[in-house]
Specification:
The two termini are 30 Å apart. The protein has a 12-stranded mixed β-sheet with strand order 7-8-9-6-5-4-3-2-1-10-11-12. It is of the alpha/beta class. The radius of gyration is 19 Å and the shape is globular. Helices cover 31% and strands 17% of the residues. Bound molecules: S-adenosylmethionine. It catalyses: GTP + AH2 + S-adenosyl-L-methionine = (8S)-3',8-cyclo-7,8-dihydroguanosine 5'-triphosphate + 5'-deoxyadenosine + L-methionine + A + H(+).
Length: 339
């Protein structure tokens, strides 16, 4: 198959693929999988609904043909997927992929970190919303100590991973952790990224008044530290990056709410049951699993993906901003599509 450049209706190329490998998580973060909804009787996807590793690899190869260069594995919690390191090993062999990353809450890194590294994974995004233990235990809904994640971050760095830490900021919930987190990760020379609380899904009770936007976080950090903006690394880079002037260590902002970046969005997403989405805020996906399992050829699957991308017009965050608030849509959940 020939390598194509496929563009959507807003001239955005397809470059990145986020693959969710499970809809399950060991955390019940209040803003993502609140306990009240994701309780003991919640029906997660049955095993045979999940894409197999072979199916994921087959699809990924087709996406690479269409221009994808970066892969990120996500979930749910991707380390809950049995033997996910084997998938990494399979994906690492695909020619044309420049970068594979994985996003995790870090709890199982002691257990699986070295296997993931041996399989070829080099980049981890580790989610951590507080270093204060009480705050973190409350937020993750499972009473897990921040010390566990901090120790696992150290472990991941010690075995060679390049690590970034992601903190979702909610006003009045964990904004008092912005400065302690900044200090801690500045000293560790680990890039810290602040994510604006987003109105993904329908279950987290999102309200604009709970969002602390980049401008306010920068102001708070600048009152203590000297930081300066850094130029974009490449087209479509999601984080707006800054650096500490003294140590050079980096902080970044994911400004989905205050400064939407839809115009340079090059990401496609596949849910763990094989639905293709072109936006985190989508409400409908294209069933690739059905295509694969009904015996369609790689060429037919490629044409279907190409069609989905070429007809893509979405720019939810821009429309939310124009609308001055959440758009009333039946959106899919973050834990299902993967962050
Ligand atoms: N379990 C993995 C993890 O913790 O990184 C991967 C999945 S998780 C859904 C991916 C990221 O999305 C996490 O950093 C999480 O904090 C973030 N996230 C979830 N809901 C969010 C929301 N409403 N707004 C902003 N970020 C959110």
């Amino acid at each position: 198959m020939k390598k194509d450049q496929v563009l959507d209706q807003r001239h955005r190329p397809l470059r990145d693929l986020r693959i969710s490998v499970t809809d399950r998580c060991n955390f019940r973060c209040t803003y993502c999988m609140p306990k009240e909804i994701f309780g003991d009787d919640y029906q997660f996807l049955p095993k045979d609904h999940l894409l197999t590793f072979e199916e994921i690899v087959e699809l990924t190869k087709i996406f690479v043909e269409l221009g994808v260069k970066k892969i990120k594995l996500t979930g749910g919690e991707p380390l809950l997927r049995k033997d996910v390191y084997k998938l990494i090993a399979m994906l690492s062999k695909i020619e044309g992929i420049h970068d594979i990353g994985l996003t995790t809450n870090g709890v199982y890194l002691k257990k699986y970190g070295s296997k993931l590294y041996e399989a070829g994974l080099r980049r981890l995004n580790i989610s951590l919303d507080a270093i204060d233990d009480d705050t973190f235990r409350r937020l993750n809904g499972r009473d897990v100590s921040a010390k566990t994640v901090l120790a696992n971050i150290d472990y991941a760095v010690s075995i060679g991973f390049s690590v970034k830490v992601n903190m979702v900021v909610q006003k009045g919930v964990n904004d008092h952790q912005i400065l302690p987190m900044t200090e801690y990760f500045k000293n560790k020379r680990i890039p810290l990224r602040f994510i604006e609380f987003m109105d993904v899904g329908n279950t987290n009770g999102w309200n604009m008044k709970d969002v602390l936007i980049k401008k306010d976080i920068v102001k708070m950090i600048s009152s203590v530290y000297s930081i300066e903006p850094i130029d974009e690394n490449y087209f479509g880079e999601v984080a707006k990056r800054y650096r500490h002037q003294d140590t050079g260590s980096e902080i970044g902002f994911i400004t989905s709410v205050s400064e939407p970046f839809c115009s340079s969005c090059t990401r496609a997403r596949i849910s763990s049951d094989g639905k293709l989405y072109t936006c985190l805020y989508a409400h409908e996906g294209f069933d690739l699993r059905d295509f694969i399992r009904s015996g369609k050829s790689p060429e037919e699957i490629k044409m279907a993906i190409e069609r989905v991308w070429q007809t893509r017009k979405d720019q939810y965050s821009v429309e939310r901003t124009e609308n001055k608030g959440m758009l009333n849509k039946n959106k899919i959940e973050m834990s299902y599509i993967g962050g």
